């Protein structure tokens, strides 16, 4: 059985009918992972034994005739900033290379409750800071569609693992696009949920007011199933939200599409946007139009300030969140140090990478007395203005359409020396986190070179289900390939 | 030139909650080091804070007790700094929108002088460092106990309204009582659940200008606060009198040398990089809830003193004494419901109850006020005398027995049979002719001796006033 050609839900169905065992499924993907890993390097840690244990449990429960959740037994990969009890959780950082959490993140608990075997922890930019996974302290991950390209980031490992079907499902985290941008670069589906819908408990903080956990999958149906499984109020996260009532949207049919109003974001084209990217947005706009939806251009005039506001808030919060890494209780410990201060200085100097240090310095500066009002306070005010702008626009439009990234996947090493260029690659994905929207990246075709392009649809808070229905309507008709045909392991 | 001291206090009290400020670990004092810890209070990666509702309630209660305006839309902020006892490298505190502000406390012992309360806000404790050999920088090694990390703290900042060490002392006492009666904090300085730093500057009399401010730390008792402020006022006056300059600095109180010392370290202006805590949404306190908390406030120490004077007829000193000891005052209140001899009650509480509590090391809080009431009633009925009453009371309190049964069981009940007493008196008078003679000649000592003889033959079970009457009756006919 070619499990890598099936969606997670399809595999789940066969598991339910006992046409295949969960142990076989885990073995299949574990072997595939091992085969592809030398080229891809999606994983930082793998845990096949634990995964097999869960699979056997699933098989045993099924033998006894118990009804299990739809994704039970389907292997999942999780980003390495999600705390896993007893399993290394490095955040892609030298600093946490040997850190083993004593507790599970809320989302990991949910995976366990639903019997999803965690096959491993995926590579990422250190602490989530980056858009290419090249900022991993250990090694870069490659793009399964072309090994010379980056997979995006910071959830590059999760996106690459799904695009290569090392696993059918993965969890990433999204602060300013870290789920959607790698999903776009790898040609798969990635959702950034409404801030507060998925518990952050156990997600190692980067920028607390922006971080969210989201699913990365090969189909929108799998994405919605995985999202439903991880979403929900958690009393351990004070920013967690109770979803209002029944928010599952009905299936989108051609009749209902006619009632939809689509806003195409005017500011997301022109300078800095690749022609094929602009073209793919136009294609999607005419797609919805051809089904009778009202498609109009909308303006979000504050977009040009969003990137600055985002990077200030993100750096300020990060500088505070990362203060705890002093290497005293846990984490990287240098060799000899004469006193406490030198010890902490050396631990941080040697334990953190360049980009992390850059953000800490930026954030510390922006929070300093005398600068706070000019930088942080202004950024927070800008955030409020952008929110008002967005609320106004979303009164008229059901969703906003734009590219997920301004360019197709870039080459490994191409932008790593130029942080500003790297930051600019987030320009399409930072507005939604700033205002708390839900947003999804869906495959939007390929460049002439065969690299995937991603399109983004954003909607008001709590409209994840609607976004998945839109994605489904699109993908059912477009049938884009979401599994890279790989040259590497398949040869041998 | 004459100077007057301008003094303000900064007080930290640990709130009396079962659990910590942002997690559900025990907040109890004196547990095994690092046994009450979890990912949240250890600041482990990925952990998140959730507000303790009880701490919030106690914070609001304290704010209202101090006549502060409660800010319904208050919020928490991060105060960022590095120190090994601070596991997250930031303290969750409150910065520009404190829970309470613009209040005051009237200090009755200062003839009701109101001392301004600038603000009171909630925050979390840091862990505790144990240095082996000197301070953090000199120690061979240091140990960290995170049990204290995350315990809820209330910081109270007064206006610079105090003018002497004595006023500071009286204010602190009154504040402590207010917090104790409202069960907001244990206020135990020796366990660190109340801490105080003092700020003092000197201002020329008849001038509004203020001198440079000195902050005094390491104040381990209210008496130390008073002594340190008095020392510091004198020191600053001496500096100014020789036209010197008082440095704006932090000074350390040395309890043994009874002096303040400059901490002389390079004092960098701390930049705490405050910003709104993104993990804790801003508070939205419900007005009705705030009112409910306010309605649960205990009467103030001043109101209590007045009640004891006016309702129970205690003297000023007596009322002060009771109110200064909340567990005794509460005991008094419990007993006074059932016993109307208030002065008698006060005497027994300030005497016997205090003695028993101290000797047996039991808090008056857990002593049964009913036992005292019943014992006093037995005594008032004349069933037992004062000496017996003491014994009955102690046994009743310590062993939890019923005073009336104790009196019966042990044959402690007073001999009230005047016939039997009459025979005993007759015996004693016949056995002690010299004493009788002396007594008849007017020597009082001889009378006391005879009374003592009778009492000892009853083994203390007779009512001395009855014995005295019978003695008088029988002795005079023996006059020759």
List the helices and strands and how they pair.
The complex is a heterodimer of chains A (492) and B (480).
Chain A: H1 8-16, H2 22-40, E1 43-46, H3 48-63, E2 76-79, H4 106-113, E3 118-122, H5 156-163, E4 169-174, H6 180-186, E5 189-192, E6 212-217, H7 220-230, H8 254-257, E7 261-265, H9 275-290, E8 294-298, H10 303-321, H11 340-351, H12 354-367, H13 373-396, E9 399-403, H14 419-424, H15 431-435, E10 438-446, E11 452-459, H16 464-478, H17 488-491
Parallel strand pairs in A: 2-3, 2-4, 7-8, 7-9
Antiparallel strand pairs in A: 1-3, 4-6, 5-6, 5-10, 9-11, 10-11
Chain B: E1 3-14, H1 53-65, E2 69-70, E3 77-80, E4 90-93, E5 100-107, E6 113-124, E7 128-132, E8 141-145, E9 152-158, H2 165-181, E10 194-204, E11 214-219, H3 222-241, E12 249-254, E13 259-262, E14 275-276, H4 287-295, H5 301-310, H6 316-323, H7 326-336, H8 342-359, H9 369-380, H10 386-399, H11 403-409, H12 418-431, H13 433-440, H14 444-457, H15 464-475
Helix pairs in contact in B: 2-3, 5-6, 7-8, 7-9, 9-10, 12-14, 12-15, 13-14, 14-15
- Proportion in β-strands of chain B: 15-25%
Structural class of chain B: alpha+beta
Order of helices and strands of chain B: EHEEEEEEEEHEEHEEEHHHHHHHHHHHH
Q: Whole-Å distance between the termini of chain B? A: 83 Å
The number of helical runs of chain B is 15
CATH architecture of the domain at 3-253 and 455-491 in chain A: Alpha-Beta Complex
Q: Extract low-pLDDT stretches of chain A.
A: 488-492
Radius of gyration of chain A: 21 Å
Rg of chain B (C-alpha, Å): 30 Å
The number of strands of chain A is: 11
Distance between the termini of chain A: 19 Å
Q: Mean pLDDT across all residues of chain A, rounded?
A: 95
Q: Which parts of chain B are unreliable, with pLDDT below 50 for 5 consecutive residues or more?
A: none
Mean pLDDT level of chain B: 91
Give the strand content of chain A: 5-15%
Oligomeric state: heterodimer
**Shape descriptor of chain B:** elongated
Give the helix/strand class of chain A.
alpha/beta
Shape designation of chain A: globular
